[in-house]
Amino acid sequence: MTPITLVEGRRIGLSNLDKVLYPETGFTKGEVLHYYATVAGFLLPHIHDRPVSFLRYPDGPDGQLFFTKNPPPGTPDWVKTTPVPRSVDLSAEQVVVADLATLMWSANLVVEFHTPQWTAGSPAVADRMVLDLDPGAPASVVECCAAALWLRDRLAADGLHAYAKTSGSKGMHLAVPLEPTPSERVSAYAKLLAQEAERELPDLVVHRMAKALRPGKVFVDHSQNAAAKTTAAPYTLRARARPTASAPVSWEEVEACRHPSDLVFLADDIPPRLERDGDLFGPLADPDRAGRLPGTRGARP
After folding, report:
1. Tens digit of pLDDT for each residue in 111-160?
2. Which InterPro entries would you find in this protein's record (predicted)?
3. pLDDT digits (tens, 9 = 90+) for 169-196
4. How many domains does the chain have?
């Protein structure tokens, strides 16, 4: 029988707690749930009021992985959902992880959390921009750091603040808080920025996805800003060989990175980092940090 846990007054069945999801480290489903309960106060603000897409891996990263946007079968009626316009995405309805109870119910499904760059009340109007830095072997996160530093300074020249996090896989994400701006406008600016980075750093950066162009270079993926695209949320665990987390990092850590292992953070690493540094992505929610793209007045809903 599945044990029932009471979370914020909601009855949630938490199943298979002893199941090993990450065989390389022996990390269990119970430990996954404990991780999310521990970091909830930092994760929830970053996915608050955003439709969430789930990458599910119920049998671990070596098992079946499948991406789902619509609420999965058996979703409790107390889980908040939001309509998503078909002009933005073919998913008509998506889950909004509004509280700890919903977070724990979602985590019990064994998921990565992915969100768009806009909130539920303003579809296709972004309040942040994301650049996904994806290294092509033999390049690694070390080369991503070099590209990130150039992009940070280039964004600063346009009056924009950039914040870095590991993807939890092999690359990095840069996030920029924005005044509400149409996703199409953000996408166009991000593409121009990626193209400029390639011109200025031709031995390091490419802006096109073609695999033949990417060995030894960093692909600056600007497409994450399209209204229908999503990005792994800060602090989400990833379906990798080990329970790696998408971890916000300081620019000092980016500057100091000399080996790929310097920016690998496992689930157990995150609570001590939060205790020491707080939420390094916290400024994304600060309206005083929100920037305006060159040549636009924004688009406040």
Report:
1. 999 999 999 999 999 999 999 999 999 999 999 999 999 999 999 999 99
2. LigD_pol_dom, MtLigD_Pol-like, NHEJ_LigD
3. 999 999 999 999 999 999 999 999 999 9
4. 1
**DSSP state, 187?**
H
- The residue type found at 38 is T
Please tell me the distance from the alpha carbon of residue 123 to that of residue 119, in angstroms, as a whole number: 6
Cβ contact 101:55 at 8 Å = no
Burial class of residue 88 (count of CB atoms within 10 Å of its CB; 0-12, 13-18, 19+): middle
Please name the amino acid found at residue 167.
S
Return the number of other C-beta atoms located less than 10 Å from residue 133's C-beta.
Answer: 27
- Which residues, including other chains, have CB under 8 Å from residue 38's CB and lie 6 or more apart? 270, 271
Contact 197, 207 (CB under 8 A): yes
Q: What is the DSSP string of 84-130?
A: --TTT-S-SEEEE--SHHHHHHHHTT-EEEEE-SB-TTSTTEEEEEE
Give the CATH number, domain containing residue 90: 3.90.920.10
Under 8 Å CB-to-CB from 217, ≥6 apart: which residues? 135, 136, 139, 143, 203, 204, 205, 206
| Mean of pLDDT values over 201-211 | 89
Tally of residues, the chain = 301
- pLDDT for residue 1: 61
Give tens-digit pLDDT for 22-57. 999 999 999 999 999 999 999 999 999 999 999 999
Residue 118 in any domain: the answer is: yes
Query: Domain limits at 29?
Result: 4-123+230-239
Around 122, how many Cα atoms within 13 Å sit in the side-chain half-sphere? 16
Residue 279 within any structural domain of the chain: no
Q: Residue 267: inside a domain, yes or no?
A: no
Residue 33 lies in a domain: yes
Structure tokens at 102: 């919903």
> Tokens in use for 257?
């990175």
